[in-house]
Amino acid sequence: MTLSRPRCALFVALIGVAGAASAAATTKVSLMTASEQASLIETRHSTGKGAAVSSFTTEYFGNGEIGMAWEDKRVLLLCKKAAYLNLPGMKPEAGTLSIEQRQMVAYEAMMAGFGGIAALGAVTGESVEVADDGSEMRRPGESTWAYGVERYEVATQRMPDGALRVRVRKQATVNNAKPSSPDDTFSTDEDQAARLAELAPNDSWTEVVIHGGARKPRTDPAMSLKGWVSTVEQQAATVGDARRLHDCK
Length: 249
What we know:
By secondary structure, this protein is an alpha+beta fold. Helix content is about 25%, strand content about 35%. It has helices at about 5-20, 30-35, 100-125, 190-195, 240-245; strands spanning about 25-30, 40-45, 55-60, 65-70, 75-80, 80-85, 125-130, 135-145, 150-160, 165-175, 205-210, 230. The strands form two sheets. Strands 8-9-10-11-2-3-4-5-6-12 form a ten-stranded antiparallel sheet, with helices on both faces. The longest helix has 26 residues, at about 100-125. The protein is globular, with a radius of gyration of 24 Å. Residues about 10-15 and about 15-20 have low confidence and may be disordered. It comes from Stenotrophomonas lactitubi. This is DUF1849 domain-containing protein. Keywords: Signal.
């Protein structure tokens, strides 16, 4: 069958409309807003194919308490005045650390929770698009470094339970550095090599799953703190006792 030019144009237009109709509708989601409203954030990371996968979870409670966990270790932030650490196998043992060192461990645990979101944002920007039908979407992404860009594959998905899953996998490093001259002060060959060594390897990836929904009101006040150490001088036996001891509202 031979189509006239007007009919051919109409046929092409109809194909385009059909393709657009079959594409999944999408919604733009703010990573910052999602993380601020989260009840639980799960972060997983690996340095490449076949490498071990590390995981870190952050749970947020309605009264402002935050629970953090990785491997068999846990940190419970009760309020601005006190946190408790449960770090089996840590060398030196948590109980032998100074108060300042314990507080630093608690601070680093909080930063680790934020680190996953920051790693995503450096590649995706503040917002990501997700398909409304729950299918996985993939697109390229990149972040800048001192002498070029890092290229990534970005995968996003709205999970059946409503959680937001975002994964970034590094694909390549673009290095635009030029050999330095003897008069260079900043962009020396040594500096270029040092900056390059700081970058994540190809095939490394970070995945964050942000769960929304209602937060649990608080940590169980009857939970025992045996085996936990406080980041302040006083030590309580249970979570409820700790709230009273440290005047946590």
